[in-house]
Each structure stands twice: as C-alpha cells, then as structure tokens.
Amino acid sequence: MAVICWLIFGLYFFLENFSIDTCTVLCNFEENPYNNSLTSILPCDELRSAKAILPEVGAGISFLITKVNSNLGPMFPNNVDLCNPFSAPPKYLYQPEFCPPNSIQIGDIPKVLKPYTCFGDSDENCGSDHLMNGGEYKVVEAYTSSTQNLLNMYPGMENLIGCKLVKDAFSQILFKHCKALNNFARMAWVAMVFLAVMMVFYVVLSTIKACQDHSSYHPSDDSV
Predict the structure, then answer these.
(1) What is the mean pLDDT of residues 89-117?
(2) pTM of the complete model
(3) First to last CA, the chain
C-alpha cells in the first residue's frame, strides 16, 4: 500500500510540474504571440507579414465609398450616405460602430437603386429618365455584394493575422483552468505524501510490534 501511495504521489507531482510548465508557455504566448516557444507550432510571426495588407484594403474600400457618396449621393433618399467603416488615413482602422445612424451599408445599394432601374419594357419605371437598365443593375449588385462580403470578413482577417482567436482560447485556459489544476495537483500529491509517510510509519511500527510479539512467545534459552 505504501508503494502504491508513493507511485500516486509521483504521478500527481509530475502532473503539477507539467501543468505549471504548460501554463507558463501559454502565458508567454499571450504576452508575445510572435516570439515564444510555440512559434514553430503556431506561426503567428508569418501571419504578421500580411498585416500591412489590411490598411491597403481599407484604403481601397474607403476610397470607393467616398466616390459613391459623391456621385450617387443625390439619388439616395433623405440624403442618406454610405457607411464608411474605416478611420482616417493612414491607419484605416475598421470601426463600423462610428457610422452615422442614418447611413446604409454598401451591400444595400441595390435596394436603393432598384426603384430607379428598368428591368424590362413592362416595368413602369422604364418611362422615366436617367434610369439604370437591368444589366447595369446586375453589375452593381455583384460588385456591392462582393465588397460587402469582404467587409464582413474584415474583422475575421484582423483576428487571424493577430492570432487573436488562439490568444483568446489560451486566455480562457489560463483564467479558468491553470490555477485550479495546479492547486488540485498540489493538494493531491501533498495528501499522497502524508498518506505514504503514515503508511511507512505504520509498517515500521507493525514490524517492531511483530518482533516484540515474537520475542514474547519464544523466550531465549537463558530464561529456561
């Protein structure tokens, strides 16, 4: 029994050291995801090279939205403008929460232009001037849909390049599991050490008691 206690102690002692080392590695990754012992497994440093592309994408979309607002702005009802979710140059940070409340998304342009589009001879809008035909409407719809899809993916691209998804997962492990696991392993191996030591004392005392009992039942020849 004492041997089993010592084996269990060794297992939990190893578990505590392993958890401490693992949590230390995760903490180092959280502090610097681009230079740590997990770089060979999680190559965030390679993704960082793509970080310079994001401002260029933001600049292109921001320029497009500015041109649309200047050229098609009068067609929008109630002087509504397109939402430009990017900050001023040169950073072009993606900040859609700062869009005016009466602005619309670039993907909503086809909805605004649809009443002004002639889709066929039977369409009642075809008698008006300055209208867009069905073919032009389809082109605008395709471009705006693609641009809106790119905008929808932009936060995900930022998170991917910054390894934010991995950092958030590691943060949850550090916050919820590391300390609890370390405490559990430490309590377990301390309890096993105490139990093993008590078992050793018990074995020693039992051995001494057995020897004493054996001597009392088998007295020496001198006492005869």
Answers:
(1) 82
(2) 0.57
(3) 40
